[in-house]
Design a protein that fits this description.
It contains two helices and seven strands. A hairpin with a 6-residue loop joins strand 6 and strand 7 (about 125-135). It has a single domain (about 10-135), classed as Lipocalin (Beta Barrel), CATH 2.40.128. It is mainly beta. Strands 2-1-7-6-5-4-3 form a seven-stranded antiparallel sheet. It has helices at about 10-15, 20, and strands at about 25-35, 45-55, 75-80, 85-90, 100-105, 110-120, 125-135.
Length: about 140
């Protein structure tokens, strides 16, 4: 059975263009992803993961890049950044067709964003609320 859930690494890879907007502080960040989609239980558990972001990760669009899922071809377009606010659109054709829109904000110690996606074979839209907060220095 094929799952319509997106893996956290794929979502994190879609966050790549956000680094330049807010000059996030290097350190260990904890990401929390909450999903809602048609036909899924109302109380789906949140997914969390941690990532160490160093000074080099903060250059350009590298702060949120994670290794993409195998076979993923997601592209970011129409990126807009101003005063710690951002928005962009994303599109994938592999491993499945996904179109999405993102809006969010960044500070020196964290990020919040809302992502709405339409995926092939799924009635309705999936929404994700994603937060990242700096929890310590990298070890």
């Amino acid at each position: 059975m094929r799952s319509n859930l997106i893996r956290p690494a794929t979502v994190a890879a879609l966050l790549a263009p956000l680094a330049a907007a807010a000059a996030m502080t290097p350190g260990l960040y904890e990401y929390t992803i909450k999903m809602s989609m048609p036909g899924a239980p109302a109380n789906m558990p949140a997914q969390t993961f941690q990532r160490c972001l160093n000074a080099k990760d903060m250059e350009g669009s590298k702060a949120y890049e994670m290794p993409p899922s195998p076979g993923s071809d997601c592209q970011i377009k129409d990126l807009s950044q101003s005063g710690g606010q951002f928005s962009y659109k994303m599109a994938c054709t592999k491993p499945q067709k996904i179109d999405g829109a993102v809006q969010g904000s960044l500070t020196s110690t964290g990020m919040t964003m809302e992502m709405t996606m339409a995926m092939a074979g799924m009635a309705g839209h999936m929404t994700q609320s994603i937060t990242a907060k700096r929890i310590s220095d990298c070890k």
